[in-house]
Structures are given as structure tokens and as C-alpha cells.
Amino acid sequence: MAKHMTLEERKVLETRYNAGQSVPGIADAMGFSFSTIYKELKRGDTGAMDKNGRAGYSAALGQQRLYNKKQQLR
Length: 74
What we know:
Elements: H1 7-18, H2 23-30, H3 34-43, E1 45-49, E2 55-57, H4 59-73
Antiparallel strand pairs: 1-2
Helix pairs in contact: 1-4, 2-3, 3-4
């Protein structure tokens, strides 16, 4: 069974991503696979560009979308 990130892990991801760190670097540092990081970035996509010219990411938005999806599946 796949393990989802906790809100605290999402906040670390947000901090690292907004600081301009690469996805492979984030994955190595956090102990997740590249695909997990990419899926999480898609889940928390704000629809705006960040200061690094990449899609924006919000840990709170990612957490809320996961919660909403789990509620739909019940």
C-alpha cells in the first residue's frame, strides 16, 4: 500500500521546491521516489508560476485535495 505524505512532509517539500531545489534532489533528501514527488507537486499545483518559473506548489492545497479525494471514496 502506498504511503501518502504527511502535512509536515508536504511543508518540507514546499520549502525545498520554492527554494529552487530540483525534484531529484528533493526526492533523495526526503526519501521518496521521483514519481511520488511529481505526483505530490501535481496534487498541490496552485495554477500559478512560482518565482523560479515553475508551477506553484502549496502544501496546504495538496493536503486538502488528498482529504477531499479520500472523502469521495468513502
